[in-house]
Design brief:
The relative contact order is 0.27. The protein contains no helices and 9 strands. The protein is mainly beta. The radius of gyration is 16 Å and the shape is elongated.
Protein backbone atom coordinates (compact mmCIF):
# COMPACT_ATOMS: atom_id res chain seq x y z
CA UNK A 1 0.00 0.00 0.00
CA UNK A 2 2.90 2.36 0.75
CA UNK A 3 4.07 2.05 -2.87
CA UNK A 4 0.74 3.43 -4.14
CA UNK A 5 0.12 5.94 -1.36
CA UNK A 6 3.37 7.64 -0.37
CA UNK A 7 1.81 9.79 2.37
CA UNK A 8 -0.16 8.44 5.33
CA UNK A 9 -1.45 9.45 8.75
CA UNK A 10 -3.55 7.56 11.29
CA UNK A 11 -5.90 8.89 13.96
CA UNK A 12 -7.98 6.63 16.23
CA UNK A 13 -7.70 3.72 13.81
CA UNK A 14 -8.64 5.82 10.77
CA UNK A 15 -5.84 5.90 8.19
CA UNK A 16 -5.71 8.58 5.51
CA UNK A 17 -3.45 7.76 2.55
CA UNK A 18 -2.59 10.16 -0.27
CA UNK A 19 -1.17 9.74 -3.77
CA UNK A 20 -0.56 12.93 -5.76
CA UNK A 21 -0.01 13.45 -9.49
CA UNK A 22 0.98 16.53 -11.47
CA UNK A 23 -1.40 17.07 -14.41
CA UNK A 24 0.64 18.61 -17.22
CA UNK A 25 -2.35 18.54 -19.59
CA UNK A 26 -4.35 20.81 -17.26
CA UNK A 27 -1.44 23.08 -16.34
CA UNK A 28 -0.40 26.25 -18.15
CA UNK A 29 2.96 27.35 -16.70
CA UNK A 30 3.22 30.24 -19.19
CA UNK A 31 0.03 31.61 -17.61
CA UNK A 32 1.08 30.89 -14.04
CA UNK A 33 -1.20 27.88 -13.54
CA UNK A 34 -0.16 24.44 -12.28
CA UNK A 35 -2.61 21.65 -11.45
CA UNK A 36 -2.40 18.44 -9.41
CA UNK A 37 -4.80 15.57 -8.78
CA UNK A 38 -4.75 13.75 -5.48
CA UNK A 39 -6.21 10.34 -4.68
CA UNK A 40 -7.27 9.87 -1.07
CA UNK A 41 -8.03 6.53 0.56
CA UNK A 42 -9.62 6.56 4.01
CA UNK A 43 -9.40 3.21 5.80
CA UNK A 44 -11.30 2.32 8.95
CA UNK A 45 -9.28 -0.08 11.11
CA UNK A 46 -11.27 0.84 14.22
CA UNK A 47 -14.13 -1.19 15.67
CA UNK A 48 -16.70 1.57 15.07
CA UNK A 49 -18.55 2.80 12.00
CA UNK A 50 -17.62 6.40 11.23
CA UNK A 51 -18.99 9.15 9.00
CA UNK A 52 -16.97 11.93 7.43
CA UNK A 53 -18.85 15.20 7.93
CA UNK A 54 -16.50 18.04 6.99
CA UNK A 55 -13.05 18.74 5.59
CA UNK A 56 -10.46 21.41 6.36
CA UNK A 57 -7.52 21.95 4.02
CA UNK A 58 -4.52 24.21 4.40
CA UNK A 59 -3.01 24.83 0.98
CA UNK A 60 0.38 26.57 0.86
CA UNK A 61 1.83 27.84 -2.39
CA UNK A 62 5.51 28.15 -3.33
CA UNK A 63 5.64 31.73 -1.97
CA UNK A 64 4.43 30.57 1.45
CA UNK A 65 0.92 32.02 1.09
CA UNK A 66 -1.58 29.88 2.98
CA UNK A 67 -5.18 29.34 1.97
CA UNK A 68 -7.71 27.59 4.20
CA UNK A 69 -10.60 25.65 2.63
CA UNK A 70 -13.45 24.24 4.69
CA UNK A 71 -16.62 22.51 3.60
CA UNK A 72 -19.05 19.68 4.01
CA UNK A 73 -17.97 16.19 3.03
CA UNK A 74 -15.70 15.35 0.13
CA UNK A 75 -16.61 15.43 -3.58
CA UNK A 76 -20.24 16.02 -2.63
CA UNK A 77 -20.48 13.05 -0.25
CA UNK A 78 -20.40 12.42 3.49
CA UNK A 79 -19.33 8.77 3.38
CA UNK A 80 -20.10 6.23 6.08
CA UNK A 81 -17.21 3.80 6.54
CA UNK A 82 -17.77 0.53 8.41
CA UNK A 83 -15.02 -1.20 10.40
CA UNK A 84 -12.62 -2.81 7.94
CA UNK A 85 -13.99 -0.66 5.12
CA UNK A 86 -12.47 2.10 3.05
CA UNK A 87 -13.50 5.07 0.92
CA UNK A 88 -11.59 6.44 -2.06
CA UNK A 89 -11.96 9.71 -3.94
CA UNK A 90 -9.99 11.89 -6.33
CA UNK A 91 -9.92 15.67 -6.37
CA UNK A 92 -7.61 18.40 -7.61
CA UNK A 93 -5.75 21.53 -6.65
CA UNK A 94 -4.62 24.43 -8.84
CA UNK A 95 -1.78 26.73 -7.77
CA UNK A 96 -0.22 29.87 -9.18
CA UNK A 97 3.27 28.52 -8.36
CA UNK A 98 5.00 25.30 -9.51
CA UNK A 99 5.39 24.07 -5.93
CA UNK A 100 3.33 23.98 -2.77
CA UNK A 101 1.81 21.64 -0.23
CA UNK A 102 -1.48 20.51 1.24
CA UNK A 103 -2.48 19.15 4.64
CA UNK A 104 -5.57 19.18 6.77
CA UNK A 105 -8.18 17.20 8.65
CA UNK A 106 -11.56 15.55 8.37
CA UNK A 107 -14.15 15.92 11.09
CA UNK A 108 -15.92 12.62 11.69
CA UNK A 109 -18.46 11.15 14.05
CA UNK A 110 -18.55 7.58 15.25
CA UNK A 111 -21.63 5.40 15.65
CA UNK A 112 -22.17 6.78 19.18
CA UNK A 113 -22.25 10.37 17.87
CA UNK A 114 -18.83 11.27 19.24
CA UNK A 115 -17.03 13.78 17.01
CA UNK A 116 -13.30 13.74 16.37
CA UNK A 117 -10.76 15.08 13.88
CA UNK A 118 -8.67 12.83 11.63
CA UNK A 119 -5.35 14.13 10.29
CA UNK A 120 -4.68 14.35 6.56
CA UNK A 121 -0.91 14.01 6.07
CA UNK A 122 1.05 16.87 4.57
CA UNK A 123 2.03 16.24 0.98
CA UNK A 124 4.06 18.22 -1.53
CA UNK A 125 2.78 19.59 -4.82
CA UNK A 126 5.79 19.61 -7.13
CA UNK A 127 5.73 20.30 -10.85
CA UNK A 128 8.49 18.55 -12.79
CA UNK A 129 11.42 20.73 -13.78
CA UNK A 130 11.30 21.78 -17.43
CA UNK A 131 14.41 21.54 -19.56
CA UNK A 132 16.44 19.58 -17.04
Amino acid sequence: MEALFAHAAETRGIAVRVQVSYLAEQSEPARGRWFWAYHIRIENASDRTVQLLTRHWIITDGRGARHSVEGEGVVGEQPVIAPGGSYDYVSGCPLSTPTGSMQGSYHMIDEDGEGFDVAIPKFALLAPAVGV
